[in-house]
Amino acid sequence: MLICSTVKHLREALSEKNLSPVGFVPTMGALHAGHISLVEKSVRENRVTVVSIFVNPSQFNDRNDFMNYPRMTDRDIELLSGYMREDDIVFTPGEKEIYPGDEPPVIFDFKNLDKVMEGAFRPGHFAGVVKVVSRLFDIVIPDVSYFGQKDLQQVVIIRELVRQQNRKTRIVSCPVVREPDGLAMSSRNLLLDPQLRKGAGIIFRTLVTASEMVSGREISEIKEFVTREINNTKGFRLEYFEIADELELKPVKMRSEMVPGLKYYGCIAVWAGKIRLIDNIGFNCSVLKG
Q1: Which residues are catalytic?
Q2: Is 191:275 a contact under the CB 8 Å cutoff?
């Protein structure tokens, strides 16, 4: 595989290889099995795969979170070397390469999509996500781009970005990869206090139970259960739990609002000490009872 740290080098390499389709996996590094599952899928489905490693400052509404985000590029490159082929590319740009100062502003209107859940609790987050993804798509011009389902809201917003910008890139959402105790794999897991890490399986266990409750319980009861389970676990604090549809991400307040045939997800954000974790699980709404 080839390592490129500049836009010029990357574009020259892609032009020289002249292979298609081009698969793209954007990451912020600190790679884990979840990222690797995206890379493996891209490698299987495309003649060339580009993996970017860039910790994007514009999507952090908390400066400390940005400064503390794990960075281990050498280790990431070594890990990727076991999965990527000779023609594949790892793109490791600096901030000036991504944001040289002359990039056009990204204009968007996501209506409700960026106002709820993560958007409500992380002001400016999705503006930063859209800014960097749009820029990376301009650089790589991928045929397909792969994202993890753990960031469900992000995937929905990026699909809408592609639609609004009339891009030809196909967005593929890949299943959440979990630790043995159910904790969704995340680069932030590396920052967890060891004792809190031992108890972090409570997040997934609570989501599973909540998904089973939807067949016969009202939304308010489910939310009360989730709040109680998380907040009664030492060191953990619920930030939000919502049940939202997969298209508009509109949180539902009553089961009567749920549309048959439309998929819904239970979406959660939890503070484990000073580390914020998110997750989601699909709800089987075909078993709804009156």
Answers
A1: 35
A2: yes
Q: Quick one: CA torsion of 227, 230, 232, 235, rounded to 10 degrees? A: -140
Beta partners for 23? 49, 144
Residue 30 tokens read as 């600190």
pLDDT, tens digit (0-9, with 9 covering 90-100), for 164-197: 999 999 999 999 999 999 999 999 999 999 999 9
- Burial environment of residue 193 by CB neighbours within 10 A (0 to 12, 13 to 18, 19 or more): middle
Instruction: Please give the model's pTM, rounded to 2 decimal places.
Output: 0.94
Over pLDDT 70: what percentage of the chain? 98
The C-alpha atoms of residue 176 and residue 23 are separated, in whole angstroms, by 19
Cβ pair 161, 53 in contact under 8 A: no
One-letter identity of residue 135: R
What confidence tens digit (pLDDT) does each residue in 110-138 have? 989 999 999 999 988 999 999 999 999 99
Nearest to 160 by CA among 122, 126, 117, 120: 126
**Looking at the DSSP assignment, which residues form a beta bridge with residue 148?**
174
Domains and CATH numbers, the chain: 2-174 (3.40.50.620), 187-281 (3.30.1300.10)
| Tens-place pLDDT, residues 31-72 | 999 999 999 999 999 999 999 999 999 898 888 888 888 899
Task: For residue 230, list its beta bridge partners.
Answer: none
3-class secondary-structure state, position 221: helix
Which token pair is 98? 């991504």
Q: In what order do the strands lie in the sheet with 144-148?
A: 2-4, 89-91, 48-53, 22-27, 144-148, 170-174
DSSP 135-195: HHHHHH--SEEEEEGGGHHHHHHHHHHHHHTT--PEEEEEPPPB-TTSPBP-GGGGGS-HH
